[in-house]
Amino acid sequence: MDGPTVAAIAFGILLLLLALRVPIGVALATVSIGGIIALRGTRPAFGVLGSLPFDFAASWSLSAVPMFLLMGSIAYHTGLTRSLYSAARLWLNSLPGGLAVASNFASAGFAAASGSSLATAAAMGRLAIPEMLAYGYDRGLATGTIAAAGTLGAFIPPSIAFVLYGWYTQQPVGTLLIAGIIPGLLTAGAYTVMIVIRCSLNPELAPRVRVRAGVAEKFAALRDVWPLPLLIMSVVGGIFSGVATATEAGAVGAMFALLIALFSGRLTLRSLHASFMEALRTTASIFFIAIGAILLTRFLAMAGVPRLMSEIVTGWHLGAVGVIVTMILVYLLLGMFLDPIGIMLLTLPVFLPMFDELNINLIWIGVLVVKMIEVGLLTPPVGLNAFVVKNIVGDTVSLNEIFSGLSWFLVCEVVIVALLIIFPALSLWLPGLMEG
Amino acid sequence: ETHLTYGSTLPAPHLAHHAALEPFFERVSDATDGAVTWEIMPGGTMGGVKEVVQMLRDNVTDSGLILDLFTRRELPVTSTVSDLITLPDDFIVYGAAANEFQLIACPECVAERSEQNIVGLAYYGPDPYRLMCRDQTRTYADLQNKKTRATGRLGVLMQEFGATTVTIPSSEVYESLQRGQADCTAASTAWLDSYNLKDVVETVIDLPMGSYFNANIMSMNAEVYHGLSESERAAINENLAGLVVDVMLAYKKEGDAGLDNAVASGVELVQPDERLLTALAAFRKGEVENTIATAEAAGVKNARKMVETYLSLVEKWRAILSEIGVDDREAFVAALNREVFSKAKF
Amino acid sequence: MLTAHKWFSRLNTVLIAVAIMACAAMMVQVSLDVISKYLFNYPIPLTLEAVASFHMVALIFLPLGLVTRERGHVGVDLFTRNLSERRLAVFDGCAGLLGVAYAAVLIWFTTSEALHKTRIGETWETAFGYVEVWPARWLVPAGCVAMALWFALLLIDDLRFAATGERSLPSARSADEAVSAS
Ligand code: NA
Ligand code: NA
């Protein structure tokens, strides 16, 4: 059997296994191992299996994910998040979906500190979702907002995704980071508009508070909100002032949350234990899935999927628009199953030569690529941001509710991607300004 | 027809792929009338730098790039000379010598790779590391206590220079120089372009501080290599010298271009002061003994003899290359074929 | 089965304790490194290596037993939502079987890899010389053993429930561990 046939069969089995409730990490690994055995024999398959789990986990850059998870869970379990949200509730009462909008912008702020979507969703999820649920927000809206707004982490600098794209394509990282800013703000803006419209049309999604608070009461509520803004500002400030790198900031943030909780008298052994347990649980289950996704990437590369794609797309003799639209569709498809790095690894070698030939600006393409791999974090069945959120909420919200909540954000993404394609200036104007 | 895979941890558009490996694969394919074709799997798709030896041994890929600094204990003998990384004052000389050493002068190395089910076919060295700083660091005195990103023996060298060595992954170099988590970095001048360091760096000290000359650009799974027909193997072997020369000349070109572009965009190229030169010379002297001691501690017998052999080959190639000049591709290829590839038994 | 549950839970407790220590050590060590680097120009040696090669591996693999016990692996329940509890248990049992198989294969090959790396004494090169990292290789099979045991135990419980309608194990999450928003 040739590679593509094996890959097609493997995908069929994968979908079947997922439908039968097999854990995603197990399903991805099973078909990948089976596929590699079918293509190259047992020795390569078991060789990969022996070394990949450790080599993937033993990563400094990824350490920001568990540390930001820990920061978020400490802030939640010690009650640092509560007062901010009760104040936000009073202040944003007049805005439909006020808390969701606030969480959306808080994520944008946090994204300025964190280079990773997963870390952003992890940290903000713990801070925001329980509060939104406590105020009766629709479960899909609350979780979808955080999972989607987490992707701002990759657009507002710093951004691991842009750094990796820059490395894989040998494009200047600084220019790419600047290029991501406006698309990131555009995304935050589009999400806001969508949330406000949905909540105005259907107020049940985000119940407003009955009691009308006076001005004095509103200001009184501000007295206790300081811990969370202090935490976020010190993480962001620590990075901008050159004290800590984006990776180190995770650990520093967790430490800082611990200290704030300690000095404000809110730290108990019980809350500390709960925070650590939660960070561990979420880290382990997310990375377990990621290992499966990377196994799948290796299998697809062995199956010659990149070569097949390249033959097909080259054979079509598409123009610039055709290639870009094809790329978007390929990313949408692969994004359903793979992690961001895997998608870039499989597709960039295929598409880069075509873009080169068609003289398409690779900075602009970088923005589209990052946008699409971020969309992949939100699409079922394998959507890592949705899984981060799922781990945070436990059994209170089902995965289906999260994905259906996310579908509204995906509608926004269709508009955003269309705008990014139609108006390249959205991506290229700011870097052009920078270079004079 | 044989379709082979090449696993690389370098990004797809990397010069090692388009300027050296792809032309090499094409020459082999032509010489075999299309019977042997290759496909590069770039960016670490098939495994990271630490997995490469195992990846080749288990035939996850058929061929690949081994940077044995990351897999010291998998290949302790082959990587003996790798600790001399800070020595190269001329990376092309050291790279050429690495081929003769690995393929001919060091039978223990050949045997070790063979035990790992791997055939090492060609070696190279990339362009050298230089010091680059975000501020006006120009001298040894300026460098004191500067947070400098460097790894391995280069990191030790930075400490020797009085700088503070910090460990930051290459993906964060740009950000950390921009914001000051690092003041300086030891880096290839090609990074000025590829990581855009020219935007965040003010000075480059024009002092080559070494090059990783023991990079095995072409290694193959032994069963796959020996499974090819005799004429197919000959087609590979006859084109290896061209591969070695192409990759090193491409590095030279790209490194020079990176520096030129940087200078054009306002980065200052600073000549090293006397104290830097003496400190580097003193450090290099100690590195030979250190390399021998490290290898012996890892259980390598004859480490001293191996290091001395390699260094004598460096002088041999220094003489050869000063005669033909590095820019004469054909003469360089002929010399490598005459001295190394026509004699090597793979 | 309750005895197995008790002993497997104890195993989890031990592994989680190590993982918590790794997580705490990571937070403390990186923070100290940042402070010391900023204030005294003195980075704490080997911070990156300790975090990457040990702490990260510990906190990713050691909790896998706990995640499995709590049925915390993410799965898709879109197509099986309307099934009865006992029908679901059949599906979960089959999924558990695959889980046991995957975990067993992982244990086998990551153990042989750990053995190999131990034998050669795997090192990473740093600015402070070569550091031995091979002990961390054993964290992978250690976590996978706990995962395999829990997959197996839950699988038996699921199949039993499917057949008889009775469970013999206590429910997945105890009250104090529940993370549901209150
Ligand atoms: Na960011
Ligand atoms: Na997805």
UniProtKB/TrEMBL annotation, chain A:
Topology relative to the membrane: Multi-pass membrane protein
Protein location: Cell inner membrane
InterPro entries: DctM, TRAP_DctM
Molecular function GO terms recorded: transmembrane transporter activity
Domain TRAP C4-dicarboxylate transport system permease DctM subunit: 11-426
Keyword entries, A-Z: Cell inner membrane, Cell membrane, Membrane, Transmembrane, Transmembrane helix, Transport
Summary of the function given for this chain in its UniProt record: Part of the tripartite ATP-independent periplasmic (TRAP) transport system.
Protein name: TRAP transporter large permease protein
The species this protein was found in: Pikeienuella piscinae
Taxonomic lineage of the native organism: Bacteria, Pseudomonadati, Pseudomonadota, Alphaproteobacteria, Rhodobacterales
UniProtKB/TrEMBL annotation, chain C:
Residues that span the membrane, as ranges: 12-32, 44-67, 88-109, 138-156
Entry's Gene Ontology BP terms: C4-dicarboxylate transport
Subcellular location: Cell inner membrane
Superkingdom to which the source organism belongs: Bacteria
Quaternary structure (record): The complex comprises the extracytoplasmic solute receptor protein and the two transmembrane proteins.
GO CC term, one of those recorded: plasma membrane
Keyword GTP-binding: no
Function (record text): Part of the tripartite ATP-independent periplasmic (TRAP) transport system.
Domain Tripartite ATP-independent periplasmic transporters DctQ component per the UniProt entry, residue ranges: 26-160
Keywords of this entry: Cell inner membrane, Cell membrane, Membrane, Transmembrane, Transmembrane helix, Transport
A single GO molecular function term of this UniProt record: transmembrane transporter activity
Protein known as: TRAP transporter small permease protein
Residue ranges of coiled coil: none
Membrane topology according to the record: Multi-pass membrane protein
Family listed: Belongs to the TRAP transporter small permease family.
